[in-house]
Design goal:
With 298 residues, the chain is α+β, with helices and mostly antiparallel strands. Helix content is 56%, strand content 23%. The strands form four sheets. It has a three-stranded antiparallel sheet with strand order 3-2-5, with helices on one face. Strands 6-7-8 form a three-stranded antiparallel sheet. The protein has a two-stranded antiparallel sheet with strand order 1-4.
């Protein structure tokens, strides 16, 4: 506190307040010193912390020196770097899921709508290269994965008809998987799994398939009826043949001796009544024989 200020205070108040003012000034100086200490501590701590970088689980660090990407890749854990000289970009190498809907055309020019679920990850040993060529994960998805998946689907679907896409779904999936792996390997991206979640066609094609199925069912039903009728006719022919053969065998077996024997076995002892050409003349052989026996009896 200056002498002029002390004099002014004495003149205004009529008394001296020097001790109070000195105490306040001293406290203020202590507070400023404490603030400076805290600021210096935080600065030192921040400077010290900037010397280290922590790479978390499932991550790799791309080390850069003045913006230039280095060959060294930082693995999981804590690493010492030079502040202001080195910077680190953290890249995830975990399996990531990407879902996409794509439109393609089949071999018979039918529109195919496919929902695909893709599991992929960045090759850990090449995170610096893919970051240098493409960028981070959002850039990889937008610039590489989505266009590649759409192109592969169009190329594979064009090899099959719409019916084959349905009946050979496993083969179609394997083709998409192989082509996509080969394409993404050029960008250091590994394909873990791919699933064709939904495969749909246009409404016109769906109606045509339904009509075809109905026609096939009707054709199968008509074929069944025709086969049934043919079998019934064949059964009747076989039955007629069997009856004719039985009659032939019976006819061949009826010899005169057999007929005579059967007549004798079935005769009840009564002679038949003979009717002549004139219906009024009826001859009873039994009566004739009886009359003859009576006449010859003494």
């Amino acid at each position: 506190m200056t002498k002029d200020k002390i004099t002014y205070l004495i003149m205004q108040n009529g008394e001296v307040e020097i001790p109070t003012m000195v105490a306040r000034a001293t406290k203020k100086n202590r507070d400023l010193t404490a603030v400076k200490f805290v600021v210096m501590f935080l600065f030192a701590f921040g400077l010290l912390a900037s010397c280290f970088v922590i790479i978390g689980p499932g991550q790799r660090g791309v080390l850069m020196q003045f913006g230039r990407i280095e060959e060294q890749i930082l693995g999981e854990g804590i690493h010492l770097i030079i502040p202001l000289v080195n910077t680190v970009e953290k890249i995830s190498v975990r399996v990531q899921n990407q879902e996409i809907s794509a439109e393609a055309s089949s071999k018979d020019l039918q529109e195919v709508y496919t929902d695909v679920a893709l599991n992929w990850h960045i090759m850990p040993s090449a995170v610096n290269l893919i970051f240098q060529r493409v960028g981070d994960s959002p850039a990889i998805v937008g610039r590489i994965i989505n266009p590649a998946l759409e192109e592969v689907l169009k190329a594979v679907m064009a090899k099959y008809t719409a019916e084959e896409i349905i009946t050979k779904r496993g083969e179609v999936k394997a083709g998409v998987d192989d082509h996509l792996k080969s394409r993404l390997a050029n960008y250091y991206i590994a394909v873990d799994d791919i699933s064709l979640v939904h495969v749909r066609f246009s409404q016109r094609f769906s109606d045509a398939v339904e009509a075809k199925q109905i026609a096939e069912q009707e054709a199968k039903r008509a074929e069944f009826i025709a086969q049934k009728a043919a079998k019934e006719a064949e059964a009747k022919v076989n039955l007629a043949k069997g009856e004719a053969e039985a009659q032939r065998l019976l006819r061949d077996s009826l010899t005169p001796e057999l007929l005579t024997k059967q007549a004798i076995e079935k005769w009840n002892g009564e002679l038949p009544v003979i009717v002549g050409s004139d219906a009024k003349q009826v001859v009873n052989l039994t009566d004739i024989i009886t009359s003859h026996q009576t006449a010859t009896t003494p």
